[in-house]
């Protein structure tokens, strides 16, 4: 019997690592990507490329988030820069209301309907932007909701919500990904969604920290630099 | 300060009653209706009419549910008939995987982004089809998820999830609705989505039971009968 898993997939470093991890654990993977009006929509292109590299189908689902609710979906807002890793800070404006709750709910629905036993999410609560829906206590509560609120849950075979990167540092994730052969060159993390990573938003900063502390070069940054040199030459 | 509420709104008897109840309680209401590929899509037309009658804007959001996951979304499947109220029965094929979890999550996202303090849902755990996401224990779990998984929740002002009909019989709901002036003639409950209510699906059966036990005629059925007589005459 093949075991199936739905992967919450964004085209970023974490979810790409999770996809390759789930594959190694023997799951037949069904990544789903959400088009929710994010300004860095180029992550969807990255997601498709990585799925192709991993030889899995990739589903893109449109989800109606209110545009004005976050600097990540409002093109007139500014993405906060230079904040990653500061000790005392509030939840940043890139917070999208209830995003992971919506994504996980849709993933569970999809999982139940295709008979998948697990949903994987690349959430991380170590090197992260303090989003409440990335914290372990949220996952505990959400799992309980699924157990009591779904058919499979009431039948004792609840869809498992797996967040294998939750307690890892970004460096540990990067090392794991290299060991799994994740094509990091194809991933996209920058919130700004420009032609190249900005290097200053939270997402770029945590990514850079991960590669630095893992003692590896970021293949995406290397490729961008190469292209830049070629462009000038 | 105006208090705002998002209403999970289907155009059916329960959610129309909840809309009018929330209005009476002084909320400025923002009903949202989901277009999720349900075969009874005419409930969306009903929803718009009721919203107009209640003088509130009505948002229709498309949500990507897998079609094959339920007899409610798969036009080639059969809607089960004649089962309502049976003592021992399984969750029927009209169950849509994680539907209320998805709907509530999106409603909470919408509520957070417009600064609404509550989400109302017309869920009922007395005269209902045994859907797991209509049971009180599900709401307890979901509330906890919102408290720990959202920005407003972590700031101590969590969006309230209100299910005022949860413990009422259908007859009590009908009586409440008449007292509130709900235009039941405009509502739609039948799962089959034909020109007239089929009278045999779970949803029609529970509705009929409610009006019967409340000692009232169902204005929708009366109107359909009048039209039929006129058509034949």
Please give the structural blueprint.
The structure is a homodimer of 233-residue chains.
Chain A (H helix, E strand, L loop, with lengths): L2 E6 L4 H12 L2 E9 L6 H13 L4 E4 L36 H16 L3 E3 L15 H14 L1 H4 L5 E3 L7 H11 L21 H13 L4 H14 L1
Parallel strand pairs in A: 1-2, 1-4, 2-3, 4-5
Helix pairs in contact in A: 1-6, 6-7
Overview features:
233 residues, homodimer, alpha/beta, 5 strands, 42% helix, globular, Rossmann fold
Overall description:
Two copies of one chain form a homodimer. Chain A has 233 residues and is α/β, with parallel strands linked by helices. Chain A has one domain: Rossmann fold, CATH 3.40.50. Chain A has eight helices and five strands, in the order βαβαβαβααβααα. The first copy, chain A, has a five-stranded parallel sheet with strand order 3-2-1-4-5, sandwiched between helices. In chain A, helix 1 links the parallel strand 1 and strand 2. In chain A, helix 1 crosses helix 6. The longest helix of chain A is centred in the middle third of the chain and has 16 residues. Chain A starts with a strand and ends with a helix. Chains A and B meet through helix 3, helix 4 and helix 5 of A and helix 3, helix 4 and helix 5 of B.
Number of strands of chain A: 5
CATH architecture level-2 label of chain A: 3-Layer(aba) Sandwich
- What low-confidence regions of chain A span 5 or more consecutive residues with pLDDT below 50? none
**What's the N-to-C terminus distance of chain A?**
55 Å
Greatest contact between two chains: A-B, 43 and 43 residues
CATH topology of chain A: Rossmann fold
- Order of strands in the sheet with the most strands of chain A? 3-2-1-4-5
Mean pLDDT of chain A: 92
